[in-house]
Amino acid sequence: MEKKVKAIGLLSGGLDSVLAAKLILDQGIEVEAINFVTVFCNCTSKGSTCLASQKAAEQLNIPLKVVDISEEYLDIVKKPKYGYGSGMNPCLDCRIFIFKKARRYMEESGSSFIFTGEILGQRPMSQRKDAINTIERDSGLRGFIVRPLSAKLFPPTVAEEYRLVDRSKFLAISGRSRKIQISLAKEFGIRHYSCPSGGCLLTDSGFSRRMKDLLKHKPDFDLADVNLLKYGRHFRFSPEMKLVIGRDERENDMIVTLKREGDVVFSAEEPKGPTAILRGASNGEFVKEAASIIARYALGKDRYDEAKIKYFRHPKDGHSYLKAKPFDDAILARLRI
Question: On the chain, which terminus has fewer CB atoms closer than 10 Å, C or N?
């Protein structure tokens, strides 16, 4: 009996990756999906599993392996060989890193090739032909990555040459328009897929500003430092010291869970307002200044009176209180990251 061909699919849960999997499945190929998640993925639940990829795998009725690569990935972000995109996104280095991981899994699982939903010219940094060639070369996967949606725009892969897949059933999509993909989704009855805006925080301008600031002032940052960047308003007092203020109840709660030993933790008591942490204040510096920024958000734009702020140094100090008048917006603008 002839052995069934097996392939590994990189499944983000976006429409392109779902369509690619559908085109491979329709050729009778056994598919196992893999989704690599990092601390920078903005479609995760509690940082563990990409919900979009889960839903896509269920819809396609294929097994899904989710791999958290956050810890290793920090080194890529700190010093990417091929630099950053428009934000702090090291797209080429990211793809090379992920494909190297996928290659190991392909070999371990006895699969014949890897496939993705990549489309030629869709993303300016990582989906140009020269970038794709670099990624395949550096990942050691030249000829082993099938791109069903753009396959006819590339030379045949090993899988196509050996007729493990039928190249004639693949497509020649290029560019950023999604009309063809949306039409195919209707044809295939695919109704659930994630939005096309991208799932990486490193492409977000606001997050990238905070990430650049962190890299500049703490180049040995860790996962906890990155997680803190996801929440609140950030203010830089000195190279060692910054203040993070929650914008709503959820962020207030998250900021408290991310506190570290030595952090000064604040909460606006009268009137009730945001929670904040001051990190890097080894001798209690800038406590009054931090309280004045918190007062600005507790009192709103109506500049009247003052706010009562509770604070303590985690984990040992008892609570203290101070009255703070709100800072002017011009001061906030100078300190805001």
Answer: N
pLDDT tens for 128-172 read: 999 999 999 999 999 999 999 999 999 999 999 999 999 999 999
Q: Let me know: does 103 contact 139? Beta carbons within 8 Å.
A: yes
The CATH code of domain 6-188 reads 3.40.50.620
Separation CA 97–CA 69 (nearest Å): 10
**Maximal CA-CA distance, the chain:** 83
Percent of the chain with pLDDT over 70: 95
Residue 174 has pLDDT above 80, yes or no: yes
Q: Where are the domains of the chain?
A: 6-188, 231-335
Q: Phi/psi at 98 (nearest 5 deg)?
A: -65, -40
Task: Tell me the two tokens of residue 130.
Answer: 């020269």
Strand order through the sheet with 64-68: 64-68, 30-37, 6-10, 113-115, 145-146
> Which CA distances in Å does 54 have to 58, 141, 147, 220, 322?
6, 26, 21, 33, 49
- Whether the CB-CB separation of 147 and 118 falls below 8 Å is answered with yes
CB atoms within 10 A of CB 293: 26
Helix (H) or strand (E) holding 261: none
Gap between the Cα atoms of 284 and 286, Å rounded: 7
**Neighbouring residues of 3: CB distance < 8 A, sequence distance ≥ 6:** none
pTM of the model: 0.91
Please list, in sequence order, all residues whose beta carbon lies within 8 angstroms of the beta carbon of residue 143, skipping any fewer than 6 positions away. 136, 157, 158
- For every residue of 74-143, DSSP letters joined together read HHHHHS-TT---SSS--HHHHHHHHHHHHHHHHHHHT-SEEE----BTSSTTTSSHHHHHHHHHHHT-TT
Structure tokens belonging to residue 12: 């983000």
Give strand pairing partners of 183.
none
